[in-house]
Amino acid sequence: MKKSILFFIQIACLTALYQLSVWTVSTLNIPIPASVFGMIILLLLLLTGIIPDRFIGSGAAFLNKHLAFFFIPIAVGLMAYGDLIRSDGLALFLMIAGSSIIGLLITAGLSTILSSKRRSKQ
Amino acid sequence: MTILYILLTVTVYLGARVISMRCPSPFTTPVFTATAVVIAILLALNVSYEAYTPAKDIMTFLLGPATVALAVPLYHNRQVLFERLVPAVVGLVIGTMSTIASAVWLSAAFGLSETIQATAAVKAVTTPVAIEAAIIIGGDPALAAAFVMVAGIFGAVFGPFLLNIFRIKDPFSRGLGIGTVSHGIGTSQAVLEGPLQGAVSSAAMGFASIITSFVLPWFFPLL
């Protein structure tokens, strides 16, 4: 019982932090999405020890584990593009797949090569 | 009806999770299978996306807080992140620019319209940034959201698989690549692969969205 109340309080705190970020980003015209801004703020709060890790740990772990769920209702929105998918679907898919593969391999490949070079220098 | 749509989505998601744990494969990635099944059911029942939207709004209420919560794995892995900051930033910046350029060039090669080419440029980043950036360079914001979804699902489904094929085993680089090209959806899969992958992927997602919004307005006209 105590655990589940704590859990809901943690989720509520994360929600409050997010809403605060939405407000800050729109009021100050910060060109970063509110969720990324909130992530940076929470990281700073954790790094400075203002919020101890154990205070939000289990709520955050739960949300992280089920992050994929929150994207499903949004991705269902693709059903509204039936006509476009029927006319240009294959070309669009190949374009998105091809450019994603290029970006993925360049990013991960460069990071692997540069890191191993640095390590061998040290 | 809204409650029924929520129940449907939650049930399909939980079922998709069980299947992905019993038969792990790119094709059982929950965000892919669950989305496909929910769409199929709604189409079979003749339910429009407009009718489903109130349920969507309720279910996505926690998406913002869940993204904020990614700061926790980031915090746990702070040491590695600081140690490997330089190679990570170099990889991420070059990777972001190459995914933008290749998306635009591939769209042009396939003879897709200029609006689609501009929209393609923003597909790798998280939705709010993609929408804003698409407007600035002459793309279509609604279509941008759709491209972002496809790019995210593609990265979640095939990202780990492609990295295996190319023998990129380093968990740090895996997370970096996935977060850079497939934002939150890829990150939701990277989190399940391992805490370090999840942490680096969240950082990469955030950083790629910032880089894209700064770079795109001058980089896109050059392509």
Automatic annotation (TrEMBL), chain A:
Question: Where the protein is mainly located, per its record?
Answer: membrane
Query: Which keywords fit this entry according to its UniProt record?
Result: Cell membrane, Membrane, Transmembrane, Transmembrane helix
**In its UniProt entry, what is this protein called?**
Murein hydrolase transporter LrgA
Query: Where do the TM regions start and end?
Result: 32-51, 63-84, 90-114
On whether Cell membrane is a keyword of this UniProt record, the answer is yes
Question: Is Lipoprotein found in the keyword set?
Answer: no
Pfam families found in the cross-reference section: LrgA (PF03788)
Q: Which organism is it from?
A: Domibacillus iocasae
InterPro entries attached to this UniProt entry:
LrgA/CidA (IPR005538)
| Location within or outside the cell | Cell membrane
PANTHER family linked to this entry: HOLIN-LIKE PROTEIN CIDA, HOLIN-LIKE PROTEIN CIDA-RELATED
Q: What membrane topology was assigned to this protein in its record?
A: Multi-pass membrane protein
* GO CC term (a single one): plasma membrane
From TrEMBL, chain B:
What keywords tag this UniProt record? Answer: Membrane, Transmembrane, Transmembrane helix
**Where are the coiled-coil regions?**
none
Q: How does it sit in the membrane?
A: Multi-pass membrane protein
Q: Name one GO cellular component term.
A: membrane
Tell me where the transmembrane regions lie.
30-49, 58-76, 88-108, 120-137, 143-166, 199-220
- Coarsely, its chief localization is membrane
Instruction: Indicate yes or no for the key word Membrane.
Output: yes
Q: Which residues form the signal peptide?
A: none
Q: InterPro entries per the record?
A: CidB/LrgB
Which Pfam family is one of this chain's hits? Answer: LrgB
The listed locations are: Membrane
Q: Per its UniProt entry, which superkingdom is the organism in? A: Bacteria
In Swiss-Prot or TrEMBL terms, this protein is called: CidB/LrgB family autolysis modulator
* Organism in which the protein naturally occurs: Domibacillus iocasae
